[in-house]
Request: fold
Amino acid sequence: MQHYVIIQYYNYSIYIQRIHPRLIEDGDFFARMLKDVVVFGDAVNDLVMFDDRWTSIAMGNGCQELKDKAGYVTAANTDDGILKACLHYGWITEERARECGWI
Reply:
């Protein structure tokens, strides 16, 4: 039996912080405040993205360590977890979700 170690060397939270000031400096239409950043995750490798300065959402099927760090835990990815989180935060209305056939 072979054993593998997976090492994630990318720290996405650092990228988010580095990209954000550039967007504002460039006057980019998509520039947003850090508090407007949203990340979704379901595994230990996603812990590097979770930060108190923005919205961190753990999927219901995610590992407990990630759920403990999340600001919100939604349903599992196989149970429309992203849609349910968007509905929870009001980013999508139920009416619009129905129009699109998502619910």
